[in-house]
Amino acid sequence: MSTAALRTTHAKAILGEELYARLADTKVLVVGSGGIGCELLKNVVLVGFGYITLLDLDTIDLSNLNRQFLFRKKDVKKSKCMVAARAAAHFNPNVKITPIHGNIKEPQFDVKWFQQFGIVLNALDNLDARRHVNKMCMAGQIPLVESGTAGYLGQVQPILKDKTECFDCVPKPTQKTFPVCTIRSTPSQPIHCIVWSKSYLMGQLFGEDEDAVGELDEAEKQGENAQEIANLRKEAQAFSAVRQALRTTNAQDSAAKMVFEKVFKTDVQNLLKMTDMWRSREPPVPLDFDAIMNGEFVFPAKQRSSGAPAVNGHSNGIKVSPSTDSLKDQRELSLKDNLSLFVSSVQRLAVRLQAGEEIISFDKDDDDTLDFVTASSNLRSYAYGITPKTRWEIKELAGNIIPAIATTNAIVAGLIVLQALNLLRGSYSSMRTTLLQFKPSVPLNAVGTCPPSPGCGICRDTYIPVACDPSRTLLGDIVKAALGEEHAGREVSVYEDKRVLSDPDWDDNNARTLQSLNITRGKFLNIVDEDEERATISLALSSLPADHQPDALPFILPDPLPKPPRKVKPPAPTPATPPRSSLKRSAPPSDDEIEPSSKRIKSSGAFSQSPSKKRRLEEDGLVLLESANETLNDDVIIID
Ligand SMILES: Nc1ncnc2c1ncn2[C@@H]1O[C@H](COP(=O)(O)OP(=O)(O)OP(=O)(O)O)[C@@H](O)[C@H]1O
Ligand SMILES: [Zn+2]
Questions:
Q1: What is the DSSP string of 525-559?
Q2: Treating both helix axes as pointing N-terminal to C-terminal, what angle do 35-47 and 406-425 enclose, rounded to 10 degrees?
Q3: Does 466 contact ligand 1 (Cβ within 6 A)?
Q4: How far is CA 582 from CA 287, 579, 586, 587, 634, in A?
Q5: Which of 97, 316, 481, 551 is deepest in the core (most CB within 10 A)?
Q6: Is 181 considered catalytic here?
Q7: pLDDT surpasses 70 at 218
Q8: Residue 403: phi, psi to the nearest 5?
Q9: 349-388: per-residue pLDDT in tens?
Q10: φ/ψ (deg, to 5) at 599
């Protein structure tokens, strides 16, 4: 018997004829073809799924090859899903694998598109995409297996609407935050300098031009503190000058020195003038470009004796010059090495700006940005008497990298298939959330699934898939139709993501088309009962079928129309709520471009009259101001 036939015999014997036959007809969506995805693709091909769609937005990086075994060196820079699909097709030529190079959040992957799949398997690496797929599967009632690994740890969770917890039922750890003053003025650990470099300095130099000078002129007109404005203006003008130099052809050499003088010398000198700040801490040392280059720079004795680095290495007597026998990235860099790296990385980034790249932000796999963050955070560390880090260590810290372990990915990919089989078989009592843990005595821990959390803002909504033509569908019409006759009299507010589109006292948008409100396929319209008696209705928009008559209604609702059940009062606020400040910053960028302006701007006082609306917005992460005088607590920097 051939190997392929033998494999089929074993799979049939293990799964049983019926399940085996079902797999051959089941369309499975695998989202992500990275570490877990490659292992998973191999598994779903070998277990006998007949139709596999593999979606990933990325291309292959050299650093993927140690564990993403479907890729070879010749494949670097090629599309992950295309290469993975071709490699895995050899395992079973009878399986149809459809690779899609794209972002799962793109609008064409709407609920109707999702509904073609019998099951969805996540092999993703970020919360945002996981949340999106979870919501789509809730809307389309599609079984989902969610997974993740971090070093030796792993988790697999089967999810089925109304039967189990969804991905958003349980709170996720929030991002790490640091006080702004620590990052801006008083760093004491390498991570503070890395965050400063990656999240602040890179943005100031290579990010969007925020016209800070214009904003300050405006603030002055509004009567803000003149002295403070003058200081801020000076700062903004200084940054504006270096930004200009970075964008001027052939000025990149002088630009690097200009940046250095500003951030490592002048700014430090200015900070030293705030004597109060340095009463109980070691003051920083302004750096000197030429002196470092000439090897003449000397730190004051006090800082050196406290363990701070000396000119060409560490002052603790162990190392006075960097070792050269280690790998390039793991080599310790001297002060002068860091300065040279700083100059060369600024030059390379300036050349990119001049070639037309408008914004450059940190990416651990972009050598120019990694060199810049390595050099600038280390120079700052030197100035503040903090031990510098190697490029390798900075890549780990700045990129939030936890080393990936191929074995963990392989185990998790196997567990995903086991849970997928439970879901497809309908063996709900056999389903387990499985944890791979760092406990030699119990490496695997399987726990029964929990029912949905009653307060979940995602899986407790009543989803209604709607096919519609957004250019002809009016907001008021679709909301009325979705409420149906039974709930026609209810007072509701309507949202798209964080935007308020209407509420009981404000119906200006009801006569507008969805398209004019920038609501298109792939998006959700949430209809919230103001009395909080009924669950939220969530309309999942997709496009009309090609044969839809042009003179027929521009939208199709399911018949019978799903009815929102009575709402169970949540015991606690929705767990998935990220920290206030991070959400404030994550408001959709398109908000500004959307006409008309949102209700928030129209009438800020309205929130206090509508507690349900206020709570919902807060759950969504909007920071609501009760009065015009209230100020935002904005003194944190978020690490993503
Ligand atoms: N929104 C998304 N749409 C499609 N694919 C996504 C999306 N977000 C993440 N992915 C893919 O999920 C995969 C996750 O795999 P993995 O965690 O191994 O990441 P990686 O980028 O390959 O490795 P590393 O981050 O360690 O370099 C990646 O290939 C990534 O491109
Ligand atoms: Zn949920």
A1: EEEEETTS-BPPEEEEEEPPPTT--TTS-SEE--S
A2: 40
A3: no
A4: 34, 6, 6, 9, 9
A5: 97
A6: yes
A7: yes
A8: -55, 130
A9: 999 999 999 999 999 889 999 999 999 999 999 999 999 9
A10: -60, -30
- Element spanning 68, H or E: none
Of the candidates 525, 543, 255, 529, the residue with the CA atom closest to the CA atom of residue 372:
255
Q: Three-class SS string for 466-527?
A: EEECCCCCEHHHHHHHHHCHHHCCCCEEEEECCEEEEECCECHHHHCECHHHCCCCCCEEEE
Residue 158 sits at φ, ψ, to 5 deg, of: -80, 140
Q: What is the pLDDT of residue 1?
A: 63
Q: Could you say which of 181, 193, 450, 468 is catalytic?
A: 181
Q: How does 548-576 read in b/e, with b if 16+ C-beta sit within 10 Å?
A: eeeeebbbbbeeebeebeebeebeeebbb
What six digits make up the tokens of 351? 């050349």
Is 130 annotated as belonging to a binding site?
yes
Task: Say which residue the tokens 């008021």 belong to.
Answer: 476
- Regarding the beta carbon of 64 and ligand 1, being less than 6 Å apart is answered yes
Q: Whose CA is nearest to atom 11 of ligand 1?
A: 32
Q: How far is the CA of 291 from the centre of ligand 1 (A)?
A: 44
Question: Distance from the CA of 69 to the center of ligand 1, in angstroms?
Answer: 15
Distance (Å, whole) CA 120 – CA 138: 11
- Is 635 annotated in some ligand binding site? no
Nearest CA to ligand 1 atom 24: 64
69 contacts 97 by C-beta, under 8 angstroms? no
For the chain, which domains are there?
3-170+404-448 (3.40.50.720), 180-310+327-398 (1.10.10.520), 462-556 (3.10.290.20)
Which pLDDT score, from 0 to 100, does residue 303 have? 57
Would you say the CB of residue 40 lies under 6 angstroms from ligand 1?
Answer: no
The CA 456 to ligand 1 mean position distance, Å, reads 27
Query: How far is 571 from 456, CA to CA, in rounded Å?
Result: 10
Q: Is 124 in the pocket of ligand 1 (CB under 6 A)?
A: yes
Among protein residues, the one whose CA lies closest to atom 31 of ligand 1: 58
Amino acid letter at 171? Answer: P
Shortest-distance Cα residue to atom 17 of ligand 1: 125
Asked whether 444 and 435 are in contact (CB, 8 A), the reply is: yes
* 408: its two tokens: 């963990």
Q: Which whole-number Å values give the CA distances from 390 to 196, 325, 328, in the listed order?
A: 17, 14, 9
414 annotated as belonging to a binding site for a ligand: no
Query: What is the distance between the alpha carbons of residues 370 and 397, in angstroms, rounded to a whole number?
Result: 11
Whether the CB of 103 sits within 6 Å of ligand 1: yes
Distance CA 213, CA 407 (A): 53
CB-CB contact of 118 with 23 (8 Å): no
Structure tokens at 90: 């050899």
Number of other residues whose CB lies within 10 A of the CB of residue 618 = 17
What ipTM is given for this predicted complex?
0.98
Q: How high is the pLDDT of residue 638? A: 47
Say how many C-beta atoms besides its own lie within 10 A of residue 280's C-beta: 6
pTM over 0.90: no
